[in-house]
Amino acid sequence: MRTFLNDEDKKIILDSIRDIPDFPKPGIMFKDITTLLNNAKAYQTLMNHLEKRYKEANLDYIVGLDARGFIFGAALADRLKIGFVPVRKKGKLPSATICEKYELEYGFDEVEIHLDAFPKENANVLIIDDLIATGGTAYAASKLVLDTKANLVEICFIMNLKFLKGDVRLEKIAPVYSVLDI
Ligand code: AMP
C-alpha cells in the first residue's frame, strides 16, 4: 500500500506555494513553486513524502517533465538511488529521439525522449511533474515512455487542478497520484 500525506504536512507544502494571478496571461492563476523550493522545511517535507511513497515501488528510473518536473524528479531519483531521464520540449535533446505532439489552448507543442533513455529492458518508470492542468503534457510524455516499451508504474504531480479533469484521461494509461488536489 502506497503512503499518502497527512493533513499537517499537506498544509506546510500548500502554504509554501504562491498564487500569481494573470501569469503568463490574463485569466491564468499561476501556481509558483519557487517559494516551495526556497523553503527548506516545505521542500524537505515534500521530498521525504515522495521518498517514502516510492522507496518500495521497485522503480528503475524517474522521468521528469521539462522543466519543473526536473527539480523534483532529479532530487527523488537521487534519494531512491536510481537513474533520472528528462522528457524535453522539441529540439533540446542531442541524440536520436522519439517525439509526441500534443494540443495546447492555441496550437500544438511537442515533447521528446531519447530513444535509448532506459538502458535497462522493461524498466519500471515513474513520471513526475509539478502540476497537471489539462493533462496534455503528461499524456504525451506517457505515450513516449510506453513507446520505449518501459513499464509506466505511476504518474505523479505535486498539484492537480482537479476542475480541469486532466487526471481522468491519464488514469486510462496509468495510475495517477497527486500530493495536493487544488
Ligand atoms: P497541461 O499539459 O495542461 O496539464 O499543463 C501542465 C504543464 O503546464 C505543467 O508542466 C505545468 O508546469 C504547467 N502549468 C499549467 N497550468 C499551470 C498553472 N496554473 N500554474 C503553474 N503551472 C502550470
Architecture blueprint of SSEs:
Layout: H1 7-16, E1 18-21, E2 29-32, H2 34-37, H3 40-54, E3 61-65, H4 68-80, E4 83-89, E5 97-103, E6 108-114, E7 124-132, H5 136-147, E8 151-160, H6 166-170, E9 176-181
Parallel strand pairs: 3-4, 3-7, 7-8, 8-9
Antiparallel strand pairs: 1-2, 4-6, 5-6
The structure holds adenosine monophosphate.
Oligomer: single chain
Q: Determine the fraction of residues in helical runs and give it as a percent range.
A: 25-40%
Shape: globular
* Hetero groups: adenosine monophosphate
Q: Which regions have little confidence, pLDDT < 50, spanning 5+ residues? A: none
Find the count of extended strands (DSSP E, 2+ residues). Answer: 9
CATH topology of the domain at 57-181: Rossmann fold
Question: Overall pLDDT, averaged?
Answer: 96
The separation of the N and C termini measures 24 Å
Rg, alpha carbons: 16 Å
Largest sheet features: 7 strands, mixed
- Summed up, the helix count is 6
Proportion in β-strands: 25-35%
CATH architecture of the domain at 57-181: 3-Layer(aba) Sandwich
> Which structural class best describes the helix and strand composition?
alpha/beta
CATH class annotation of the domain at 57-181? Alpha Beta
What is the H-and-E element order? HEEHHEHEEEEHEHE
